[in-house]
Amino acid sequence: MQGDIFVQEAPEELDVDRLKDHLNTEGCGAVVSFVGLTRGIDNDEEVLRLEFDAWQDQLSGTLRLLAEQAIAKFGLKSVAMSHRTGAVGPGENIVAIHVASPHRKEAFEGCSWLIDELKNQAPLWKKEVKPSGATWKAGLG
After folding, report:
1. Model confidence pLDDT, tens digit, residues 84-119
2. What is the DSSP string of 92-116?
3. How far is CA 68 from each of CA 3, 13, 80, 131, rounded to the nearest angstrom?
4. What Å distances lie between residue 47 and 15, 35, 102, CA to CA?
5. pLDDT in tens, 24-63
6. Dihedrals φ, ψ of 35, to 5°?
7. At residue 138, does pLDDT exceed 80?
């Protein structure tokens, strides 16, 4: 199944509504979205910011491949997703995924699968900066 895909890296800001405008919803009955935010507190300590480092040459291609797989696996019509790089403060958007599908079940399943696979496969690394110091978090995403 062929679907419409829009992926981007967002080094400065991630505008969730503008990203959603890239969805093709023709013939669709559902749009499901996931937006990940930076928490201001983790383990009872203030989070000053998260810093995301990416393998620039591979990030967009990996996101596109995941979108293609989700379209094929769940019968989605369209996927739009973006991930921040650089410093992301508390309350700021880190990642956004929008999926459009003829039916809600597939839209929910596709969106959930995409965020799980993005965290497992995207060439992104996260450093958490707190008043007590900075810590690289294990794994990708």
Report:
1. 999 999 999 999 999 999 999 999 999 999 999 999
2. -EEEEEEEEESSHHHHHHHHHHHHH
3. 8, 25, 11, 40
4. 22, 18, 39
5. 999 999 999 999 999 999 999 999 999 999 887 889 999 9
6. -130, 120
7. no
